[in-house]
Amino acid sequence: MANDLKFADPASREMALKAKQENIDTVWDRYKSMQPQCGFGSLGLCCTNCSMGPCRIDPFGEGPDKGICGASADTIAARNIARMIAGGAAAHSDHGRDVAHTLLLAAGDKNCDYKIKDESKLKRVATNYNIAVENRSTKDIARDVAKKALEEFGKYEGTIDILSYAPPNRRKVWDALGITPRSIDREIVETMHRTHMGVDVDYKNIIRHGMRTAIADGWGGSLVATELSDVLFGSPTPLRAEANLGVLKKDWVNVVVHGHEPTLSDIIAVVSQAPDMIALAKEKGAAGINVAGICCTANEILMRHGIPLAGSFLQQELAIMTGAVDAMVVDVQCIMPGLDKISGCFHTRLITTSPKCKMPGVTHMEFKEEAATSIARQILTEAIDNFPNRQPSKTHIPEHREDLVAGFSTESIFRFLGGTYRSTYRPLNDAIISGRLRGAAGVIGCSNPNIDYEKGHIQMVKELIKNDVLVVTTGCNAISCAKHGLLKPESAFEYAGKGLQEVCAAVGIPPVIHLGSCVDNSRILTTLTAVLAEGGLGDDLCHLPVAGAAPEWMSEKAVSIGFYFVASGVYTVIGHPLPMMGSPNLKAYLTDEIEFEVGGKWAFQPDPVKAAHMMLAHIDKKRAALKLKPMMYPQSVPPMEIQGSK
Length: 646
Ligand code: NFS
Ligand code: SF4
Description:
The protein folds into three domains: 73-233, Substrate Binding Domain Of Dnak, Chain:A, Domain 2 (Up-down Bundle), CATH 1.20.1270.30; 245-394, 3-Layer(aba) Sandwich (Rossmann fold), CATH 3.40.50.2030; 409-626, Rossmann fold (3-Layer(aba) Sandwich), CATH 3.40.50.2030. Helix 8 (184-194) runs antiparallel to helix 9 (203-233). The protein contains 25 helices and 16 strands. Strand 11, helix 18 and strand 12 form a beta-alpha-beta unit. Helices cover 48% and strands 10% of the residues. FE(4)-NI(1)-S(5) cluster binds at residues 260, 295-296, 313, 334, 445-446, 475-476, 517-518, 555, 557-558.
């Protein structure tokens, strides 16, 4: 039964109503039945790191103020946060490793199903890695790049090489603080070591290492994932597509791909267009094969193939509830265990594909890069064979869908903003310097049933663009923006301030730029680096008039992302706080003192409009420090009370 939470999106509202009528539990019902949630856990005051515990600290000062080992609230909360970073960094980076492994296969085997689609990007990555490109075959270069990338995970000396993408002054900050990551796996392992019972006690020391681990994600594993995905699957270029549950088609075989890694879904997208597959679908009475995506797998194949977005994280169950999904194919991450039960209520065939992600009793068709096409064909055949089992009486596809433009990258915004003859970020920097644009914001991250669905994302993004802030987006925020029409260039005229409107009109971009999946937050890092290098906006990332936010975050990956943005000098506002409010010292460190060390800091604000204004105030502070011109259209700034909104 769907509960009384509100939905910004009519398609989800419709499906939640269907769930209620049919007595089917969804994430919102499970959230409700979990109330009240454990106060110790929410405050970060629960420790299960050894079996003298579990221990919990009394936040009211009446019960224990130390764990059985003597750990304080500060230590316990910091250790818990660090372990969240390790979990998130591990997920992103393991994804990066898999892409590097696929590139190595593509380089070594001429019959490999994967081809190198973007040779010029391969050469750029190779050059950044100091790998020779002159007079060498693509395969030789690719092999060296793949090996070099794979070495980043387990180097035994030096530091991560791909950190060379970061601005020199930022690297000095990390070096001075001793948080330059040495290798990706090593920092994750060391986080687990330091947070083991009886190792690191100093909460600041724990968090500093947490930042090192997060940097190893953003400027390491995630950057490897993005760069090598562009090489293998092609760098995105702007394209049009559609989003929301209404992209599912009544008379077609609907295959929903869900998860994160593009290796399988990219092949499924291609194979679904094969004439013999389409003929098979027609034999079963379908009009064709419709592939749509959920979560970041969706973003990956949207960016490169224009495959429609069926929905974001919280819509995975709702997609099945349409009764029109013949197969949901999942890989890794953000896949709700609850999918199994809900797919049992419909004809949908749920298929797991990764050895890392199985579900008891669920069909497992294991994906192997070495046999990618044949496995993709088997999976699609399974979906096609299931099409006749669809029950019309149980089928309801909401009619809502929106147009969008996606497919931007650090390089393609570059081309857009520079025009054909001037490949440069200059126009963007000039727009900021002259006060036409206030600055830029990265709004990203998950959705969470603890807030009305998409209210956080949409209200925040609208408030920012209204105030002449160009928004870049990834992950589930990007999907939400797409569903609400914010990724259409024309939406600038409806929602953006006058200055941003002028920029959008001049270069033909939407006011909200979709940069891809969550590993593609690395594109935000490299874009900021390019803006900085263009000049006129300071000499380190922390000088830029920018801010970051994840208004509806839920995953450990979001924690890692937030920390690498903070460690990169970016003011980062999230909706509900990190689970550490039971440690006032840690809160003071993360929301204040840390800024003196890395130039960025955290803020927590559940009200998305207030949060947007905290970001605007920060951007204005940075503009003032850079002595930039006053805003050209200051009337677009409404007065806003932001007191007490840390
Ligand atoms: Ni990011 Fe992408 Fe979505 Fe959150 Fe999950 S899909 S990796 S973690 S829920 S934004
Ligand atoms: Fe308790 Fe310390 Fe063990 Fe944690 S590590 S469970 S605080 S005794």
